[in-house]
Amino acid sequence: MKRTGNSFSGTVTPPRGFNEFEVRTGDKRARINFVYGIQTGGQAPYSYHKPLVDNECATCHEKAWGKSSPTEAAVCYRCHPAMAVMFPYVHGPVAAGKCLVCHDPHGSSLPSLTLKRPRQMCTGCHDQPSTRKHLDSSRSSVCTLCHNPHYGMKRSLLRVTF
Q1: CA nearest neighbour of 138 among 126, 154, 150
Q2: Summary mean pLDDT of the chain
Q3: What is the pLDDT of residues 21-71, one digit of tens each?
């Protein structure tokens, strides 16, 4: 590796299969995951949740909780801050603390450890005729390009663009 200021370059020959590079500077980290030398059929590689990779199961599965076990959201919020409390509109599953309706806590080959692609996940619950009409006329079939799946400033959870 060669570093010049904030840039670096280098040549590596990764092993066949799933690979991960981690770049660190100070307290900041960036990870790059990729598959090399095998056919994935266009599917992204399976990504595991970091506590699972680090063999830190107790981070989420504490035996000490016993009968007073926290909600699934409380477990998730230990590492993923509950920013939804700052917004006037919160998506139903988020408000109910039901993270696992959309996310797999162990891993997924989809972004953000989701269970399904955005359109399939959204239309699983939002199956009204008005949703179908909206999908037929929208420029994208990826709901999350325009809508934040967790919270927003407007009832429709539209993303704010500046």
Answers
A1: 126
A2: 81
A3: 777 778 877 777 666 666 656 666 778 888 887 888 888 887 655 555 677
Task: Work out the number of other CB atoms within 10 angstroms of the CB of residue 55.
Answer: 8
Q: Which residues pair with 107 in a beta bridge?
A: 48
Matching residue, tokens 């280098």: 10
| pTM attached to this predicted model | 0.67
Q: What secondary structure does DSSP assign to 29-73, as a single string? A: EEEEEEEESS--TTPPPPEE-HHHHTT-GGGT--GGGGGGPPPHH
Give the list of residues 6+ apart from residue 143 with CB closer than 8 angstroms, or none. 118, 119, 122, 149
Share of the chain above pLDDT 90, in %: 18
Kindly report the backbone phi and psi dihedral angles of residue 53, in degrees, each rounded to the nearest multiple of 5, phi listed first. Answer: -60, -40
